[in-house]
Design goal:
alpha+beta, 20-stranded mixed β-sheet, about 30% strand
């Protein structure tokens, strides 16, 4: 394992590009690279390497990326064009269906899987989502190596999410100062509307300040707010919340701190729920439980994949994400591993998972607590969904319907594919209907220094194209989110980005342009992120003027001090203290 000199992320042996920032890594000796890229026939030295890997340490096992299925050597097929690959896919599914004795569903009459069967598919993908390196200390079996290669690829992509989580890893504390400089045209427009005067003018001229503290598990928070900074701000408010109390002070109106024990008040107001910020801590999935869950269920999934149902072939691959979205084709000679289990194998897998779920007390406790919190919030918002699904219900449902789910997946030709080029994972695909329906698809490629990557979950797509120039990285991140009968999309273009320079909020320093709706021809919203000393500056400019947000690396938020006054009774009676507050805010 090495580290990228550009962003510091861990890199695997033999990799030419960093999985996090896309930078080109220092190349190895040509002889070494060529030796790693050479594919040896199954059953040869690759099989011996797999046996030797069983005796190495777990850290060395993490470097295994190819499944190494032990099958008879098959003749190498020529690289085909995209149309040829599609025909081969269709022929492959037709042959498999004939072997299993199942009929292809008529066009337009595909059997629905149902939400419960999708839960089963989610369990199937558990080993991918959370990783498979802890499935076993022996990565010699085809199933274990099949999962390990995919874990290694996706865990590197998840490094971006991990860096975002680090912002709040130990709590968050910062002082934010927002200043504005409106254009003359905007000032004139606001003046004519009667808005650019009095308190509004003070707020726009002097800016706003917010000092924030958020606890490590979001269980407590403090906010000190000033609208219209200066000796005599327009509005000041100091607020706090913790698992037991909520309080506030308005210094311009009173020195008292008004406090309420909000969990009890909400419950007595008829919500039938006792809501508290302590619930946020219970919603988080502990890392220890995540690792144990991976080990428990990853071993079951790996055991279901064997040399008899994992097929290996050399051929081209038809892109489902990169070509349609980024106009980049994956046109090379790849090694494609396909797991297409029959109904009997799937039924056995579902029952084994259900049996393990029945014994999994730790995951059941976290899941059931998560469901209870959901019930509490639903009741507090006026909804009464009744008793939510418990973990044991999921296990029973999976066991009782194992045969039905398995038959439906076989009828719809469920296939799990892994596409590799040498030691690099190029695609991971879970599909139905001979490729017409993608449940999950991940693709990644590098071409002449450019990085292409994308992921598709059903009809929602996230892609990125990235390149490097002297001033830094530039590229485009695009997202299309589909839900029921509507689709939302956006694009984020960036340039001069330095991934080594992170801002207070985690966003790398550089220039950005947000395009709502993904309109490439639109001006969008332009903003820049840069560090100046101990501060991060986020500057947005458009035809209205400029808006600058300064964030400090350490915060000074403080709890409001003063004589405390409990307002539980007033809230329960529907009468809040300081009725002049509403008039004051209304005057603004």
């Amino acid at each position: 394992m090495g580290k990228c000199k550009h962003c510091g992320s861990e890199t695997g042996e033999g990799e030419l590009f960093c999985a996090n920032c896309g930078a080109r890594l220092e190349e190895e000796e040509p002889e070494t690279v060529a030796a790693k890229a050479t594919e040896e026939p199954p059953g040869g030295t690759a099989e011996k390497a797999a046996e030797a890997a069983a005796e190495t340490k777990e850290a060395e096992h993490e470097e295994a990326t190819e499944p190494g299925v032990r099958e008879a050597a098959a003749p190498k097929e020529p690289v085909q064009d995209e149309a040829g690959a599609e025909k081969e896919d269709a022929a492959e599914h037709k042959e498999t269906a004939g072997h299993k004795g199942t009929a292809e569903p008529a066009a337009g009459k595909k059997k629905k899987i149902g939400s419960a069967a999708l839960i089963a598919l989610a369990v199937l993908g558990l080993a991918i989502g959370f990783g498979a390196r802890t499935v076993s200390k022996n990565l010699g079996s085809p199933g274990e190596r099949f999962l390990a290669g995919q874990f290694r690829a996706l865990s590197k992509e998840a490094a971006v999410l991990n860096s975002a989580e680090q912002v709040f890893e130990n709590g968050f504390s910062s002082d934010f100062q927002l200043t504005t400089e409106l254009s003359d045209r905007q000032v004139t427009a606001l003046t004519r509307r009667g808005l650019f005067s009095g308190p509004y003018e003070r707020i726009l001229r002097d800016g706003c300040e917010a000092r924030i503290f958020i606890g490590k598990k979001f269980e407590k928070a403090v906010l000190n707010l000033e609208l219209g900074r200066g000796d005599d701000p327009v509005l000041q408010a100091d607020c706090f919340i913790d698992p037991d109390r909520l309080g506030f002070r308005l210094p311009k109106k009173s020195d008292k701190v008004y406090v309420t024990r909000y969990p009890e008040v909400l419950q007595e107001l008829g919500s039938e729920s006792r809501l508290s910020t302590s619930m946020f801590a219970d919603l988080q999935f502990p890392k220890e439980l995540r690792a144990a869950t991976v080990k428990r269920y990853g071993k079951i999934v790996a055991a279901a994949i064997n040399r008899n149902n994992l097929k290996t072939e050399k051929r081209s691959y038809r892109s489902r994400v990169l070509k349609p979205e980024l106009k980049h084709s994956l046109e090379k000679d790849y090694t494609i591993y396909s797991w297409e289990p029959n109904a009997e194998e799937l039924e056995r897998l579902f029952r084994n998972i259900a049996d393990e779920m029945e014994k999994d007390r730790a995951l059941a406790a976290w899941y059931d607590r998560r469901q209870e919190i959901g019930e509490q919030f639903a009741k507090a918002s006026g909804q009464h969904p009744g008793r939510s699904v418990r973990f044991e219900d999921l296990a029973d449902r999976l066991r009782d319907n194992a045969e039905t789910y398995a038959n439906r997946l076989e009828d719809r030709k469920f296939t799990w594919k892994l596409v590799t080029e040498g030691s690099e994972v190029r695609a991971i695909l879970l599909q139905l209907d001979g490729g017409d329906t993608q449940i999950f698809c991940y693709e990644r490629d590098t071409d002449k220094g450019k990085l292409y990557r994308g992921v598709k979950v059903f009809d929602s797509v996230l892609t990125e194209k990235r390149d490097l120039e002297k001033s830094g990285y530039y590229g485009t991140v695009a997202c299309r989110f589909s839900r029921w009968f509507y689709t939302e999309s956006f694009a984020l273009k960036y340039s001069n980005v330095d991934f080594k320079k992170k801002s207070v909020l985690g966003l790398p320093c550089g220039k950005y342009r947000l395009l709502p709706g993904g309109d490439e021809d639109g001006d969008g919203i332009k903003f820049e992120v840069r560090n100046e000393g101990a501060n991060s500056l986020y500057e947005l400019k458009n035809e209205l003027g400029s808006f600058t947000l300064k964030a400090t690396k350490t915060g000074t938020a403080a709890l409001p001090t003063g004589e405390e006054e409990n307002i539980d009774d007033e809230l329960l009676d529907g009468m809040t203290p300081q009725q002049g507050i509403s008039k004051f805010i209304g005057a603004l």
